[in-house]
Structure formats: C-alpha cells, structure tokens
C-alpha cells in the first residue's frame, strides 16, 4: 500500500513539474519577444 502511494505521489509530482516547466518556457519565450 505504501508503495502504491509513493507511485501516485511520484506521478503527481512529475505532472506538476511538467506543467511548471511548460509555463516557465512560455514565460521565457514571451519575455524574449
């Protein structure tokens, strides 16, 4: 059960990280222009 929770937490963290990275690149590309 603990293992499963860790996997869910990892997936959530990865999803959040990907969203943050995408938003950051958008902000950077906008500020460049």
Q: Tell me the number of strands.
A: 0
Q: Could you tell me the strand content as a percent range?
A: under 5%
Main sheet characteristics: none
- The whole-number mean of residue pLDDT values reads 89
H/E series: H
Number of helices: 1
Distance between the termini: 49 Å
Q: In angstroms, what is the radius of gyration?
A: 14 Å
What general form does the structure show?
Answer: rod-shaped
Q: Helicity, in percent?
A: over 70%
Model description:
By secondary structure, this protein is mostly helical. 94% of the residues lie in helices and 0% in strands. The protein is built from one helix and no strands. It has one helix at residues 2-32. It is rod-shaped.
In short:
With 33 residues, this protein is an all-alpha fold. It has 1 helix and no strands. The model has no long low-confidence stretch (mean pLDDT 89).
Which short descriptors sum up this protein?
33 residues, mainly alpha
Task: Give the helix/strand layout.
Blueprint lengths: L1 H31 L1
């Amino acid at each position: 059960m603990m293992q499963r929770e860790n996997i869910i937490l990892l997936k959530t963290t990865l999803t959040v990280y990907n969203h943050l990275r995408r938003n950051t690149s958008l902000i950077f590309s906008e500020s460049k222009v």
